[in-house]
Amino acid sequence: MGREEQIIGERIKKVEEMISNGVNPYPHSFDKKNSANDCLKAKLGVSVKTAGRIMTKRDLGKISFSRIRDSTGEVQIVLQDGETGKKEFDFFKKYVDMGDIIGIEGKIIKTKTGEQSILVKEVQMLSKSILPLPEKWHGLQNKEDRYRKRYLDLIMNPEVKNVFDKREEIINAIREYLVKKDFQEVDTPYLQIVYGGASAKPFETHLNSLNMNLFLSISPELYLKRLIVGGYDKVFTIARNFRNEGIDRWHNPEFTMMEIYQAYADYNDMMDLFEGLYEYVAKKVNGSTKVEYRGKTIDFKAPWKRMTMTQAVKKYAKIYVEKMSDQELIEFMEKNHVEKKGDSWGWYVQSIFEHFCEEQIEQPIHIIDHPLETTPLCKLHRKDKMCRLIERFEPFCMGAELGNCYSELNNPILQKTLLEEQQKALSEGDDEAHPYDKDFVNAIEQGMPPTGGLGLGIDRMVMLLTGQDSIRDVILFPFMKEEGKKKGVK
Fold first, then answer.
1. Which of 261, 388, 396, 427 maximizes the CB count within 10 A of its CB?
2. Which DSSP string corresponds to 239-292?
C-alpha cells in the first residue's frame, strides 16, 4: 500500500470513529462571525469565531500551532494545554489533519514571536478531508494538474485567486465605463437555430423536446443588430462564446467576449471607444496605463497608433501589395511558405499579414482597412474606389488580436447577397463560412441606422492587465482533454 492510500485509509477511519462517538464530521452549518482578515486586525483579548482550512499543523506536546485559511487570508491558531480545554485539545490532536475545514472560537493573542494569533477555546470539525494536500515543498506545480484541478490550485497557490479577483474588477470597470456613456447591457441567446456573427466552426447540440438541432453561439452580433433595428441606440453584452477551433495560449473553445453596437456611429468612433475603454480599465484596476508583459512595458494610453493592413505588410513583409498582381502575391507566398487562406487578392493580403506581421506587433495599435473578403458584415470603405477594402479594424498588442470592429453593413440588398455567397461557400465545404440567416436579413430590411460595432476579448484583456501568459491562467475552468487520453484517441 502506498503512502497516499495509507493516509486515506487513516482519515476514513477517523471519520468512522467520530461518527461512532456522536460527532458529525460534516455538519450542516457554522455561525462564522469573523474572517481571517478580521482576526488579524482585531485588538488583543477580543473574542472571535471563525472557520477555515487547516494549511499547516505543528504538534509540540502541550502546545499546537496551525494556520487556517479562508477567502480573506490566513491566521495562526494556537491550542495550549491549560488554556484550551482538554477535550478540545485532545480532539484536535487526534482527529484534525492538514486540509480539514474547522470552526473555532477563541481570543486574540500575540505569541512570543509577536504574531497575531487566536488562542483556541473551542473547535469543531466542519469537513473532514479524505484526500491529503500536495506536499508542502513540491506543492501543485504541474500546469496541467493546476488547470484540471483548479480547486487544488486555489488551495495550494492562493496568489492565483488574485488573478480572478482582478478579473472581476476588470469586468466591473468595463460595465462602469459603458454605463457612464449611456450604453445598456442586454442578453442574447447561447442556443441558436442559425449561428453567425463570426468566421468560426460551431458546436452542435440537440433540443429533445422539439426534436431540433441547435448551435452554441459563436457570437452575439446578429442579435445585437436586431436590437439596433428595434430602436436601441447603444447596447452591449458580455457573453460566453463557443467555437470549435484550436487550443493555444490565446484560444480556448469556450471564452468570454463583449460586443458593443452604437447607432449613428462608424469604425472611427469604435476606435476611440475601444482605446478609451482599455485606458480607463487599466487605470481603474492597475492605477496606470502601463503594464509589464513578457518582459515588455506596454502602454494602453489613448490615442493608439493606426496603420492600414497594407501598410503593415509593407513594413514587416517588405512588399507593396497594392501594386502586385495576384500571381506575384502567390509566388511570394509560395517562396515564403505562407499558408493561403483563400483564392483572391484580399485573402492573399490577409494571409501575408498573419504570417509576417501579427507576431511583430508589441504596442497597442489599430490595424485598419481590411480586405473585403474577410467578412460579409462590414461596409465597403468609403474612400476605396477599387472596392477591395472594408471599414474594419482589429486592435493588436503583443502579437494578439484584442478585438474586431466595423462600420456595420446596413444595406439589406448587399447584405443578402453576401450572406447568400457565404451560404454557398458553406455548402461547398467551408466550415467557417456564415450560414444564411433569413430572419436577420428581414431585420436589416426593416431598416438599420448607420452603426458602429465592436467586439473585445475579455480573457485576452485580463491576460494583458494581469500579466498572465496563457488564457488558461485567466479562465477558472479551462477546457482540458480527458485524463489518460491521448489526442485523437476515442
1. 261
2. EEEE-----BTTB-SEEEEEEEEEET--HHHHHHHHHHHHHHHHHHHHSSSEEE
- Cβ(43)–Cβ(108) below 8 Å: yes
The answer to whether the beta carbons of residues 350 and 370 sit under 8 Å apart is yes
Residue 8 has, within 13 A of its CA and on its CB side, a CA count of: 6
Query: Peptide bond preceding 450: is omega within 30 degrees of 0, i.e. cis?
Result: no
Looking at residue 196, which CATH number applies to its domain? 3.30.930.10
Choose among 82, 78, 86, 85: nearest CA to 59.
Answer: 78
For residue 481, count other CB atoms closer than 10 A to its CB: 12
The answer to whether residues 111 and 248 belong to one domain is no
Assigned domain for 233 exists: yes
Residue entry with cell 441558436: 192
Instruction: Find cell 460534516 and name the residue.
Output: 26
| Strand duo 212-216 + 191-192: pairing | antiparallel
Are 102 and 126 a contacting pair, CB within 8 Å? yes
Q: Identify the CA nearest to 243 among candidates 200, 275, 286.
A: 200
Give the separation between CA 84 and CA 112, rounded to whole angstroms: 18
Q: Which three cell numbers stand for residue 328?
A: 506575384
Same domain, 228 and 94: no
Contact between residue 155 and residue 147 where contact means Cβ atoms under 8 Å apart: no
Nearest-Å Rg of the Cα atoms of the chain is 29
Half-sphere exposure of 261 (CA within 13 A, CB side): 27
Helices 458-466 and 267-286, interaxial angle, to 10°?
A: 40
Say if residue 286 is in the same domain as residue 432.
Answer: yes
pLDDT by residue for the chain (490 residues), tens digit each? 688 899 999 999 999 999 999 999 999 999 999 999 999 999 999 999 999 999 999 999 899 999 999 999 999 999 999 999 999 999 999 999 999 999 999 999 999 999 999 999 999 999 999 999 987 545 567 788 899 999 999 999 889 999 999 999 999 999 999 999 999 999 999 999 999 999 899 999 999 999 999 999 999 999 999 999 999 999 999 999 999 988 999 999 999 999 999 999 999 999 999 999 999 999 999 999 999 999 999 999 999 999 999 999 999 999 999 999 999 999 999 999 999 999 999 999 999 999 999 999 999 999 999 999 999 999 999 999 999 999 999 999 999 999 999 999 999 999 999 999 999 999 999 888 889 999 999 999 999 999 999 999 999 999 999 999 999 999 999 999 887 665 554 4
Q: Within a domain: residue 49? A: yes
In a domain, 42, yes or no: yes
Statement to judge: residues 123 and 163 lie in one domain: no
108, 164: one domain: no
